[in-house]
Amino acid sequence: MKYSITIDKFEGPLDLLLHLIKKNDINIFDINIADITEHYLDYIREMDKLKLDISSEYLVMAADLILMKSKELLPTYDEEEDEEKVEFINRLAEYQRYKEASETFKDLENLRNESFTKPASFLEEFKTDEVNLSADLTIDDLLKALAQFNAKKELEKPLNTVVTRKEYSVERRSKEIMSVLKNKKVVPFEDLFDRYTRDYIVVTFLSILDLAKKGSLLIRQNYNRDKIILEAKEVRV
């Protein structure tokens, strides 16, 4: 039997045996020791003919296989009591699981090597404690806009109002505002006060100031007395 694969491709005798088992489509747990021994010895003989150095561990495995094969030929041989064969098959099965796991990790490593990550950016230079307002706007303008909004809502408020209390945090409201800006890009200041309760208005106003301070949004006014506009600010990386 001719082989085109050199023994250097294998990591040891168990690796060679797994190759022969796969090549001959044999189930590990249904191994015929006589057959697998012949396949193994044919391979060793071929290597010897090619004057290749054969590691001693391969020869030790050959001796073990020959011994197991010889036992099977004895008239008193009982396969169920052959602990040596059971241990041999278990070693092969365990090594096969190891090989499959190694191949899986190798595939994952190759996949990871195809990905490239961007080095962490130093953003400290973009950090600022200032609120992003257009040149002709001040915090007073924002407060006046909020006061006008409150006055307008007071006139629209119904005579009988049922109040239900719902806790709001600046963090939660900030996320909601950024979600609105992400979808609409530009939003009038008043449109963010879609509920008229004191807590909601205060938290919304504080959230707008906090987001502006962090540089997440820009507050601008196109011309004097025009509506105040909020827009998401692109983050430079």
How would you describe what is shown here?
There is one protein chain. Helices cover 53% and strands 5% of the residues. By secondary structure, the chain is mainly alpha-helical. The chain has two domains: 7-113, no CATH class; 124-232, no CATH class. The longest helix is centred in the middle third of the chain and has 31 residues, at 83-113.
The secondary-structure element order is HHHHHHEHEE
Measured between the Cα atoms of the first and last residue, the distance is 64 Å
Radius of gyration, in angstroms, nearest whole number: 39 Å
> What gross morphology would you assign?
rod-shaped
Oligomeric state of the chains present here: single chain
Strand numbers in spatial order across the main sheet: 1-3-2
Overall average pLDDT: 76
Secondary structure: helix percent: 40-55%
Number of strands: 3
Low-confidence stretches: 1-8
SS strand fraction: 5-15%
Main sheet, how many strands, which sense, barrel?
3 strands, antiparallel
Helix/strand/pairing category: mainly alpha
Total individual domains: 2
The DSSP helix count reads: 7
